[in-house]
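Box S2. Input/output pair 1.
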Amino acid sequence: QVQVVESGGGLSQAGGSLRLSCTASGLSSDAGTMGWFRQAPGKEREEVSCIDQRGLGTYYTSSVKGRFTISRDNAKNTLYLQMNGLKPEDTAMYYCATLQSIACHPSAARYWGQGTQVTVSS
């Protein structure tokens, strides 16, 4: 049974930092491309950042470029998202997912985690 579990969310003041972690277990093969997505109340789920299996190719949505850094440790089957310079508009539920293709989009997700809440106060 595949399980994807996120952790590390919480409350931060604007300008602060948080680090999200995501561990995938039960996979029969490599996790492949993985990504972080977020969904704010009343909005659609959107892509934040994705990284390929080897960690050589990354994608960031324009609003987080220069502030967020995605990385992975394949030995631990763990994905990370370092979030610096947080803004109130980053407030959302953050989800980790394994992807079926290299496309960084919610429609490409195969397995989802349950999400971790990030709240940024001004």
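Box S3. Input/output pair 2.
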Amino acid sequence: QVHLVESGGGSVQAGGSLRLSCAASGDTASTRSMAWFRQAPGKEREGVACISRSGWTSYADPVKGRFTISKDNAQSTLSMNSLKPEDTAMYYCASGTRFLCSLTAGRYSYWGQGTQVTVSS
């Protein structure tokens, strides 16, 4: 069992930056990939970025060049720059046991409760 807790959300103006953190506890030795997803009101949850234990990363097209995911032992960080109003959503951290990370929600076994990010124009 892995327990994930996100932090760092908040409200910023367009063009601003935020850094989200995800702290993992429990059976973290089994974690081989971590990811960030987001869900805006009325929309489906979508993958934002993921990172494998090897350090390999993948990003959704809307955030490429603006977001950076990193991982340090049992913690994942999502650095978000040049934020846009369309980035407004609840952001969730997820972890899984697959060697290659994915932006598909079904590949992850554990999820955090989420942290809200609001970007105003």
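Caption for Box S3: Residues 49 and 93 are 10 Å apart (CA to CA). DSSP finds no helices and eleven strands in the chain.
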